[in-house]
Amino acid sequence: MNQQSPAAVPETAAAQDARHESARANGIHIAGLTKTYIGDEGRKVALHDVDIDIAEGDVYGVIGLSGAGKSTLVRCINGLESYDKGSVTVRGHEVGDLSKKQLRDLRRGIGMIFQSFNLMPSRTAAGNVELALLDSDLTAAQRATRVSRLLDLVGLKDKADSYPSELSGGQKQRVAIARALANNPKVLLSDEATSALDPSTTKSILKLLRRLHDDLGLTIVIITHQMSVIKQICNRVAVIDHGTITEEGRTFDVFANPRTPLTQAFVATTSSLGKIDDLIADKSPLIALHPGQVLLRMRYISQEVSEALVSHISRTFGIDANIIVGDIDVIDDAPLGGLVVILDGAADRIEAAIDYLRNRNIGIEVLTA
Ligand SMILES: Nc1ncnc2c1ncn2[C@@H]1O[C@H](COP(=O)(O)OP(=O)(O)OP(=O)(O)O)[C@@H](O)[C@H]1O
Question: What range(s) does the ABC transporter domain occupy (predicted)?
């Protein structure tokens, strides 16, 4: 395993401390955050004891199923929702302690984009972007120059005079991004911004966000229920389940070694290795196991090709290893290999082979035994 990508090197305690400090000073630091709603159906704990450090410059993903608490988290970050307990600091300011005016200033420094774009149908693309500047000290001419520059930034200069009804979903989201960047925010919150878009438009919007992140030094928080979005753009991810963070880490690490069943299910949606779950559910003859055989899913830092890994364990432990599926992902610029195999041999030899793989930092899931 001689992969040299930074993502392949284990995260050190010093790196974690540095992230923590960056989150507190210039990013988003969330500690012990608890939010309860009191509604017609009684009390509903939407967030429970949430801790998250989003360092300056992160593209940080928060993924969860519907109702997990993602939007509540975003609303706590930009001060639209109060919280019962804990702390939310954005660029060093405790959101819950801010006055109304300070909150307005905070929100000006946080751009937001949504699934539904939230554009005014009666205003052109330029008019929608200009809306975000009406509170500023800029003159009409200065606003027009800035709007034109923003539309250029998102690749829509020629659509300045088009109305939302004349734009595609991807173009509408570009207008919304231009509007979100109008006041030079340091932070951009994206709440399911690509959920209504087809995969290729999603890809182009994520590419745009990545470029804006790189060029403008933005910190971006991506809220999504799609692991493919996390895979394409985020350097770090938190999995939220029923208001609790169940897994958190570098995107590469989470994909290489998903720990909880929910995260494993999310990861499975993005790779052909996930197809094996359908084969199991369908009781496919392809993976019908004889007594003593074990079906194994492995994820490993690529470079070491699948065949080499498989022939090595076969030779060393005197077992047969049959490859069912193999593929390579690229996550946070680092390749991640995956393989599903059936192991066949003496039980203690198979166990020794699995121990060997685990000790070599290969993510292992025994699917059926
Ligand atoms: N204003 C409210 N009053 C009462 N309960 C609420 C309110 N807003 C959200 N909830 C509940 O809090 C929980 C978290 O909701 P939230 O909208 O944050 O989840 P989500 O992960 O964003 O879901 P989705 O992806 O469906 O938007 C859900 O059970 C929801 O029903």
Answer: 28-267
